[in-house]
Design goal:
- This protein has about 150 residues and is mostly helical.
- Helices cover about 70% and strands about 0% of the residues.
- The longest helix has 19 residues.
Length: about 150
Amino acid sequence: MNYRELEADILELIVAADEGSVRAFGEATVTRLVRPELLRYAAEDELAEEAWAALTNARENVLTISAAELGRELSTVYDGILADDDLDVGVLTVIQALAHWKSYLEQNRRGELYELAIRSIEDVDHEVSADLDDFLATPQMAAEYERIRRLLGA
């Protein structure tokens, strides 16, 4: 399966899934994308102290925090970015995941969950460098694709 086919299949799965499966997928995926290990290579000086605190609070409470609270935490993070166009990939992944989750909580748009799925695929790709023409060739990528399919009820 090439990358474009993978994207299309994930979109179809999200559109076809029932509300319970979509919510379970979103919760599992956002939790996966805000895990502390993603920040292991981040430099302390990429964010101001208040921004790190806000990011930590948002990450640790991602499933219980309201969209409004998450928005405030993200605003603090955005205001506290100190790096010039060179944020660590893990920090970017966490921030993007939180932003998509916030939008999903506010608007219940499945497109935000599609974006979470793509960020999750990209996270695995960052670790294993998948082949664009045979994206599921690595065991890690195949496992992530199967996780997405399972959670979406496929």
